[in-house]
Write a structure and sequence with these properties.
Enzyme class: hydrolase
Order of helices and strands: EEEHEEEHHHEHEHE
Radius of gyration: 17 Å
Helix content: 25-40%
CATH class of the largest domain: Alpha Beta
Largest sheet: 5 strands, parallel
Distance between the termini: 25 Å
Shape: globular
Keywords: ATP-binding, Hydrolase, Nucleotide-binding, Transport
CATH superfamily of the largest domain: P-loop containing nucleotide triphosphate hydrolases
GO molecular function, one term: ATP binding
Bound molecules: adenosine-5'-triphosphate
Low-confidence stretches: none
Strand content: 15-25%
CATH architecture of the largest domain: 3-Layer(aba) Sandwich
Number of domains: 2
Protein name: Arginine transport ATP-binding protein artM
InterPro entries: AAA+_ATPase (IPR003593), ABC_transporter-like_ATP-bd (IPR003439), ABC_transporter-like_CS (IPR017871), P-loop_NTPase (IPR027417)
Structural class: alpha/beta
């Protein structure tokens, strides 16, 4: 269970959100919507541990995660809009880098996990390709596989359908639904209302449900 309590953030004295509180249970997908500039990415960056919040707390499965913007752990897996893949590494290397270097897994372990993720996300035939050789939808799936390789407690997607065609969007929807059926805890930030509706989960509208 992800539990956000009274999270507050301002930039230069301007409050972006105040007392933001909600929970996301395993197997649940929370969709976060709202117009550009409302604070969705700011929230994701705080959740990812990349920037500090001013107050409040983030708890995952009863464990408090730091909100000072210096978190090193792999509790939260974020799939960024531009994917942030390492251009100099192949698909397999992108997926195995953090398990190898950060989690210090044994070769047999990370190799097996990567093979399973590649098969699961239909990427096996691209395992030796570099990011520049992939389509947007394929890069998106590599970013999801790379996040999943660290076995995060929460997966958060920033605008996962931006730049994707209809078929790739449907594919992202079915991946999110597959992970949902395996009890993942997922958050999806999106502008894409038909996509948000297709996810069929709770919706948090930053323009209505959030104090500032
Ligand atoms: N580092 C920063 N310093 C000052 N203001 C910032 C900073 N980062 C973001 N902002 C402001 O905070 C507000 C929220 O930005 P944020 O990027 O979180 O919005 P968003 O809802 O994700 O928008 P979009 O959908 O366009 O990505 C915006 O007004 C933005 O200009």
């Amino acid at each position: 269970m992800l539990s956000i309590k009274n999270l507050t953030k301002s930039y230069n004295g301007r409050t972006i959100f105040k007392d933001l509180s909600f929970t996301v249970a395993p197997g649940e997908v929370l969709t976060i919507v709202g117009p550009s500039g409302i604070g969705k990415t700011t929230f994701l960056n705080i959740l990812a541990g990349l920037i500090p919040a001013d107050g409040g707390s983030i708890e995952l499965d009863g464990k408090e995660l730091t909100i000072d913007g210096t978190r090193q752990g792999s509790e939260v897996g974020v799939i960024f809009q531009d994917f942030n893949l390492f251009p100099q590494y192949t698909v397999t290397e992108n997926i195995t880098l953090a398990p190898r270097i950060v989690a210090k897994e044994k070769k047999a372990t990370y190799t097996k996990t990567a093979a399973e993720l590649l098969a699961d996300l239909d990427l096996t035939e691209h395992q030796n390709n570099y990011p520049f050789e992939l389509s947007g939808g394929q890069k998106q799936r590599v970013a999801i596989a790379r996040a999943l390789a660290m076995k995060p407690g929460v997966l958060a997607y920033d605008e996962p359908t931006s730049g994707l065609d209809e078929a790739s969007t449907e594919r992202v929807t079915s991946i999110i639904q597959k992970l949902q059926s395996r009890n993942a805890t997922q958050l999806v930030v999106t502008h894409d209302l038909p996509f948000a509706q297709s996810l069929n989960g709770k919706v948090l509208d930053f323009s209505k449900d959030v104090e500032r």
